[in-house]
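Treating backbone geometry as a discrete language has practical consequences that deserve illustration. In the encoding step, the backbone of a single protein was reduced to a row of integers, each denoting a local shape. The amino acid sequence and the backbone structure tokens for this protein are reproduced below.
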Amino acid sequence: MITAVQVHRPPGPVLRREVLLVLGVSLGASAVYSIVSLLAKLTAPAPLASQTTALNPSQAPGRPWLDLTYQLLGIFFAVVPALLAIHLLNRTGDDARRVLGVDRQRPWFDLGTGVGLAAVIGIPGLGLYVAARELGINTTVAAANLPDLWWSVPVLILAAAGNAALEEVVVVGYLLTRLQEIGWRTWAAVLASSVLRGSYHLYQGFGAFVGNAIMGVVFALFYLRTRRVLPLVIAHLILDVVAYLGYTYLRDRVGFL
């Protein structure tokens, strides 16, 4: 007869080390690099507002198939920390699908609120970006810089999906769950999650930090109320797809970006 194995949750110090290690191989490391990148921009001869931050660049110019290979590998390995976080939640006795709210129990709620959150965050976020650039506290963000090839749009959409899964699973679902288990107060956990989100966007400038930190507060509070990450993934996916494809369209056809 097979007996169920009882899983005991690790003590606080073990969970704290786990959180640091997960962040150290994912968005925590990105935050550190982002801070250094901002310092490099601030100490450059040109002012911050006159600099451009290029997202989604070509990895092998003039070699399309090698470029595509690099792009797909980058997307795949970027998602691995999210899979690690899910694995660790399952290992410590949690049902990650339930904890993160990534099951199929509420598909229309997930889709509807995801679209709504994208609108709530995206429209003011665009205004904040423009204002920050005019104030000289943000770089110009070139959101998509792939060559004009058949795979460029699918890769941009996959990159948006990868970013959405990584950030919302790790910075919201996993991090808030673990911080609460460790004993953090709700407000402190929300603050940590939102500041981390803002920090790994600092390479774009101070406006990106503020905008993403505000987004982090909204997303964290939504998750704590609903215990569903999937709407956040959908919202993030929409925001990134609109930014990447919208920039590509305007750059190629309008020519003022």
Summary: The first strand starts at residue 52 and ends at 54. Residues 152-182 form the longest helix (31 residues).
